[in-house]
Amino acid sequence: MGRKLSESVTHHEESFFRKKLLLSMIIPGIFVFLMWLSKIIEFLFDIDFSFSGIHPLSADGLAGIILTPFVHADLRHLFNNSLPLFLLAVALFFFYSEVALKIFVLTWLLTGLFVWVAGRSAWHIGASGMVYGLASFLFFSGIIRKYFRLVALSLLIVFLYGSMVWGIFPGLYENVSWESHMLGFFSGIVLSVLYRKEGPQAPV
Length: 204
Hints:
The chain is mainly alpha-helical. The chain contains seven helices and no strands. The protein has a single domain, classed as Rhomboid-like (Rhomboid-like fold). Helix 1 runs antiparallel to helix 3, helix 3 packs across helix 4 and helix 4 packs across helix 7. The chain is globular.
């Protein structure tokens, strides 16, 4: 009887885990799909959406605050952003489900706004600012909350994406918006502090 109960509990936990994981993939999956759809439309109709990026302190570049994650220079640029964005966003929605949507949207908008205000005079495109923002939030939020599971996630983020830190410095990579990286990273820190008391907390 005890064995059957134990197996039933285990099965329930596995079912719950799978369901939560699948739900955590929905919004990240839709977002990445739209990124690829934008590039497919560019190829099919021979157009360039670069004008939809962020151009700092310019009225023409305001729309880019929302649109720039869906605009990429080429397939390599798109692929390099797609996988980390998807994985980091899934981690966000899985571990921070209560506040995940809010953090995801604010990372998107804050990063774009900061780049529009403080970026150099050029067109800034791509979702890398969001990648840096999500990685930064997941890392610092885990440390701030002092929650073992989330600290473990923070260490995993460092292991997988620690080399990303070099992308926030100017001049290291040619034709790369280091401002998007740096300001996305900053956005993640800000949000991890502002929302430190919302979402999962360390057991008392």
